[in-house]
Amino acid sequence: PPPKVRATHPDCSVVLYFQEQEAECLEIIRSESQTPAPPGLPGQQGCLTEWDGVSCWSAVPVGQSRAVACPDILHVFKKSKALIWRNCTESGWSFPSPPYYNACELEAIGSSNDTEAKASYFVTMKVLYTCGYSTSLAALFLAIGIFSCFRKLHCTRNSIHIHFFTSFILRGAAVFIKDAVLFSDESIDHCTMSTVNCKAAIAFFQYSVLANFYWLLVEGMYLQTLLLLTFTSDKRYIWWYILIGWGVPMLTVCVWVVTRLQYDNHGCWDDYTSLYWWVIKAPILLAIFVNFLIFLNVTRMLAQKIRSPDISKSYKQQYMRLTKSTLLLIPLFGVHYVVFALFPEHIGVDARLYFELVLGSYQGFLVALLYCFLNGEVQAEIKRNWGKWQSSMESNVFNLATQDFTA
């Protein structure tokens, strides 16, 4: 039997419904053409099975009729008991009566103005998240360069920050790659596209999203470790953090890819209504909720340390600064994703798109700002090296002037 076409996206349900019906009808036509007609009933004395673009009309002898119902597509056609008839004449099938556009009433789908407004909305969204990811990528590359160039900034904490920045860079790059592969050519039918390139782009996108969430989790775990170990870190933990941040997403995506190849290898693997989507979604939800618990525990520990009479004033100020940073890091911990975590994908689509695409695109810039550009240690190191460079330049100028004078 021919492979059944299944939906890869809810918006493609109409197109794929008719393609599935057409495939079934063409298979019936193919089987009838391979079956010899019974003796005394030549094939030309009737109307053969026909696909008219909407319905499949089974073969009937001359003088008989067929009736079909309106296409059964939810939220597209209103439920109707009306039937469309066609007669088999000596010259072939008659025209449908009544016509489809009279018998099958469409659901209210909005005016052309609504369609134009929706198209304009998505164009605006794409411009906003493109600007956001571009800004974030520039800031993240600069932040990684700062942490890498200055030797005094080489430590476990900043090493984790670099991995964290890299996960945001991968996520931004994955968005641009996915847009380029899936939407660069408007002539491509996205509802039936099922190429290796588009599947690879979706798999890379899912890996970058998972890695981003798990490095968010690592940052939360590391902050909790700093408090538990009295602001001292153990370098042995860095390998566990790397294993969690990069290894768990890689294992998850490999399982998801093998599952899709074996059991659900259709479309471009961007069907968020599929049960196999939970292979990706479940680890993301786990990281979000564990991070949320870590955030609550960190807040509790900070409150206890600040109220403690045994803590000196300087330490209290240090804890207060960390508390303010922690409160600013709420979006970095992915707490706002909890709002949408347990809702189906089709609920609150506009709000979800705004949070995940527009606000999420600027998240990398916020990370670089908090962890690097507003970091007092980084600012002091930049000022120190800037002063050394200025002194070196003044010394060189003085030496050159002295040489010219003595010459």
Automatic annotation (TrEMBL):
CDD domains: 7tmB1_GHRHR2 (cd15271)
UniProt topology in membrane: Multi-pass membrane protein
UniProt cross-references to PROSITE patterns, sorted A to Z: G_PROTEIN_RECEP_F2_1, G_PROTEIN_RECEP_F2_2, G_PROTEIN_RECEP_F2_3, G_PROTEIN_RECEP_F2_4
MF-aspect GO terms: G protein-coupled peptide receptor activity; peptide hormone binding
Residues in G-protein coupled receptors family 2 profile domain copies: 24-108, 125-375
The keyword Thylakoid appears for this protein: no
Domain of life the protein comes from: Eukaryota
Classification via PANTHER family: GROWTH HORMONE RELEASING HORMONE RECEPTOR 2 PRECURSOR, PDF RECEPTOR-LIKE PROTEIN-RELATED
Entry's family note: Belongs to the G-protein coupled receptor 2 family.
Protein name stated in the entry: VIPR1 protein
